[in-house]
């Protein structure tokens, strides 16, 4: 980056499933001698995900349950002004109308932002109800998971809530852990099509954004492979495909997007070297939900497996990068060539210095990846070659619990 370009970092602090001592949103600048200076810090509570908007603003989500200070009021959405001198100022904020928002994206038109309210992993209410046999059984309640649609004001600040779409259900590992209930982990829009990954139910919801009326219209739910937990998704820039990284097992999916608003599976490909799957083959679960006593084999329970984190595709549509955490080993970024038919071909698995690799971004001007390593509290620069393969990493700057990065 040159002296007029900045890197923005969202950081987290002890909330939900992630731990850290992040203080808010950081603005960094790399100088000509290669050193990095911290231009500003906007203090905010657990800003786990940010996106770049128009009007020199950032949007972020506060992954909390008590954003307004009122117990159980939900998470928050913030709009941050990025000033020319690198300083940051809060433009405005809103409750997110849901618990623990974990993802925010702007519509193609720049008129709306979409927010994924993840919901909690733990019971929030409970009651005992009389069963058919006359006994009383415990019934647990969880935070709702939803997609919220906010209009943006002319200056880019957050406007009114236009629509709120609640999603329900349960996933394969429904008897405990992070797939007990619906967990929306990502929502994106491109050309009017909206895709939402429901990590909790093994589903990808596909719909439309009615910009004229400010409404979300979900048309279909595609059920991915049982137990795989779709986390993040990205559109191909020119082909009718959606790429998805899974959290429970180390692989990515290619899904064709049809004109009627449905998806079909094109490919499932590992994000590790092929030899890894000799000892850890990708599972096939025939049932929709596990049996109550079934041993949970997902990556949250078996730390020999990497967990998918994030993914991005280059602007020319040639390369897909996928980041993964690996708590008993090194985290990594896998590099995939995208063929003309949209399918993926694994080129490289590049291990980084830490285990907890979360968000990253592609800096195409400098031909590098900028990634956050949460367990080392650092962001790193990883140059890439012409074919997309990654070279050796370089430490850029110490930042507590870097969760999301944009430039």
Write up this protein:
It is a single chain. This protein has one domain: 7 Propeller (Methylamine Dehydrogenase, Chain H), CATH 2.130.10. The chain is built from one helix and 32 strands. It has a four-stranded antiparallel sheet, with no helix packed on it. A four-stranded antiparallel sheet has the order 6-7-8-9, with no helix packed on it. It has 407 residues and is an all-beta fold. The protein is 1% helix and 52% strand. It has one helix at residues 276-279; strands at 7-11, 13-15, 18-21, 24-30, 36-43, 47-52, 57-62, 76-82, 88-95, 101-106, 112-117, 125-130, 136-141, 145-152, 158-167, 184-190, 193-198, 203-210, 215-223, 230-235, 241-246, 251-257, 263-270, 307-313, 319-325, 332-338, 344-351, 357-363, 368-373, 378-383, 394-398, 402-406.
Low-confidence stretches: none
Strand arrangement within the widest β-sheet reads 5-4-1-32
CATH class: Mainly Beta
Q: Output the CATH topology.
A: Methylamine Dehydrogenase, Chain H
CATH architecture: 7 Propeller
Topology diagram in text:
Layout (H helix, E strand, L loop, with lengths): L6 E5 L1 E3 L2 E4 L2 E7 L5 E8 L3 E6 L4 E6 L13 E7 L5 E8 L5 E6 L5 E6 L7 E6 L5 E6 L3 E8 L5 E10 L16 E7 L2 E6 L4 E8 L4 E9 L6 E6 L5 E6 L4 E7 L5 E8 L5 H4 L27 E7 L5 E7 L6 E7 L5 E8 L5 E7 L4 E6 L4 E6 L10 E5 L3 E5 L1
Antiparallel strand pairs: 1-4, 1-32, 2-3, 4-5, 6-7, 7-8, 8-9, 10-11, 11-14, 12-13, 14-15, 16-17, 17-18, 18-19, 20-21, 21-22, 22-23, 24-25, 25-26, 26-27, 28-29, 29-30, 30-31
Search tags:
four-stranded antiparallel sheet, 1% helix, Methylamine Dehydrogenase, Chain H, 1 helix, mainly beta, 407 residues
């Amino acid at each position: 980056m040159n002296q007029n370009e900045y890197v923005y970092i969202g950081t987290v602090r002890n909330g939900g499933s992630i731990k850290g001592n992040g203080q808010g949103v950081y603005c960094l600048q790399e100088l000509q001698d290669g050193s990095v200076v911290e231009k500003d810090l906007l203090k905010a509570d657990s800003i786990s995900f940010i996106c770049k908007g128009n009007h020199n603003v950032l949007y972020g989500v506060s992954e909390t349950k008590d954003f307004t200070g009122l117990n159980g009021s939900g998470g928050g959405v913030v709009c941050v002004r990025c000033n020319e001198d690198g300083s940051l100022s809060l433009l405005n904020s809103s409750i997110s109308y849901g618990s623990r928002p974990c993802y925010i994206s702007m519509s193609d038109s720049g008129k709306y932002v979409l927010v994924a309210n993840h919901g909690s992993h733990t019971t929030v209410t409970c009651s005992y109800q009389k069963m058919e046999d006359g006994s009383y059984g415990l019934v647990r309640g969880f935070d709702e998971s939803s997609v919220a649609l906010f209009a943006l004001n002319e200056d880019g600040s957050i406007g009114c809530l236009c629509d709120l779409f609640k999603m329900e259900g349960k996933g394969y590992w429904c008897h405990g852990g992070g797939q007990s209930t619906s967990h929306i982990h990502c929502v994106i829009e491109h050309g009017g099509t909206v895709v939402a990954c429901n990590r909790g139910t093994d589903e990808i919801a596909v719909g439309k954004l009615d910009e004229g009326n400010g409404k979300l219209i979900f048309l279909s739910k595609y059920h991915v492979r049982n137990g795989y937990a779709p986390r993040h998704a990205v559109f191909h820039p020119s082909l009718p495909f959606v790429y998805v990284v899974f959290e429970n097992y180390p692989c990515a999916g290619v899904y064709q997007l049809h004109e009627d608003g449905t998806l079909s599976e094109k490919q499932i490909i590992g994000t590790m070297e092929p030899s890894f799957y000799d000892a850890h083959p990708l599972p096939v679960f025939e049932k929709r939900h596990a049996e109550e006593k079934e041993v949970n084999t997902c990556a949250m329970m078996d730390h020999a497996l990497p967990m998918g984190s994030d993914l991005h595709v280059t602007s020319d549509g040639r390369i897909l990068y996928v980041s993964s955490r690996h708590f008993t080993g090194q985290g990594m970024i896998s590099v995939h060539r995208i063929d003309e038919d949209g399918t993926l071909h694994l080129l490289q698995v590049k291990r980084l210095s830490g285990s907890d690799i979360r968000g990253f971004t592609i800096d195409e001007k400098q031909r590098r990846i900028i990634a956050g390593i949460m367990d080392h509290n650092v962001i790193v620069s990883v140059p890439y070659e012409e074919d997309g393969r990654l070279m050796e990493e370089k430490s850029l700057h110490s930042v507590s619990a870097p969760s999301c990065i944009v430039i």
